[in-house]
Amino acid sequence: MMNFVALCAIGAEKALSNELHKLNIAILDSTYGKIRFSADTEGMYRALLSLRTADRVLLEAASFSAANFDALFDGCQNVNWEAIIPKTYRVVIGKVRSSHSQLSAETSIQAVVHKAIAERLCRVWGVTRLPEYGEAADIRVYIEKDRVQILLDLCGEPLFKRGYRTEGGAAPLRETTAAAMLLLSGWRRKYPLYDPFCGSGTILIEAALYAWGAAPGLGRDFAVSSLLIGDRNIESRLREELRQGINFANRIRIYGSDADGRAVSIAQSNLIRAYELILGKEAGRGIRIARDFVPPSEYWPQIHKCSMETAMAPENEPGFIVTNPPYGERLGDREEAEQTYQAMGVLEKHFSGWNLSVITNHPGFESFFGRRAQSVRNITNGALKSYLYQFENLGRNTNVNNRRT
């Protein structure tokens, strides 16, 4: 058994925790944007392949107290790095964070940790210096109240890079944040889903992967498989097991639209690419011709060109709207974004009885939308502080106090 740290958007911890529980992975503790868990090699690969809301998974190589640089050096040198890092690898201390600790000079921390690791590996391997080129072991150092965590990245590219979004629209939503929005919204496969600002299709694709029972990491590789703690046989077996669990015959009703015709084409292309990747196929880049694609079942997400103002509920029963409308900082100016939020009031009429989840960086979204949310959750989308507003039963004049979480 080994200890790991899964990083996620601040505000997505609940969703990530629920995912780990469903994988039968033991959670050790959690804090803002970070959950520690324990697993064996198979559990490690299952987490890497299956977690929808984790941005990264890292091995906790060491955890110890250090109030001075001597203790930091000794703690790092006591790790059996030779059982983790191949002899041909460089060692990179990619990120250092220190908070409320006596050791606070991040560049000095970085230098001491690198020296400790290098001295041990050089001694064990009988060399005078480590490689300066080639593959790298990416190590992070977090120090909180004099407690040191030495973490080794297992992902390479962050986990939100699923591989299907080769053509992204402006101001894209992270795949992991989109997945967190879906899980936190309460949406499940049995309900209709609509995104009236679908852009490059991220929310719709994450919903489809979830509804198909498809692990989001099936279309990509992980850095750990080239490290000494990796096991390609276990990884290969798990990939096949997870692919066998995909069910395209599941009845799903996923819809999306965008006023930009090119965005619709991109979303359709990315959806096809996601489908091919989870099956283990080579998926090329560029915009695909959707009409030449034969869906695997009748339950294929529907995406069409349509303005938000004219979008209508596609089903007679209530469902969920989960969307990422334009942000003032990235698309146009803030005034245009506020006009869009105000125009979204039409959803009350066109999607009566539906629930709405909206992510935006605007703290005053409710005043423009014209209704108070049942829930407002702080959440990050990359480095951007945002809010997840959740409204229940559109079209009904309810007055519920905000619950900020």
Please, what is the oligomeric state? single chain
N- to C-terminal distance: 33 Å
Query: What is the tally of beta strands?
Result: 14
Unreliable stretches (pLDDT < 50, length at least 5) are none
Quick one: biggest sheet? 7 strands, mixed
Q: What is the overall shape? A: globular
What does this 3D model show about the protein?
- The protein has 405 residues and is an alpha/beta fold.
- Helices cover 30% and strands 23% of the residues.
- It has 11 helices and 14 strands.
- It has helices at residues 13-22, 41-50, 69-77, 106-125, 175-185, 202-212, 232-244, 261-278, 334-343, 347-350, 365-369, and strands spanning 2-8, 26-31, 34-39, 54-65, 90-99, 136-144, 147-153, 193-195, 254-258, 302-305, 320-323, 355-360, 375-381, 384-391.
- The protein has a 7-stranded mixed β-sheet with strand order 2-3-1-4-7-6-5. A 7-stranded mixed β-sheet has the order 10-9-8-11-12-14-13, with helices on one face.
- α8 links the parallel β9 (254-258) and β10 (302-305).
- α5 (175-185) crosses α6 and α6 packs parallel to α8 (261-278).
List keywords for this structure.
globular; alpha/beta; seven-stranded mixed sheet; 405 residues; single chain; 30% helix
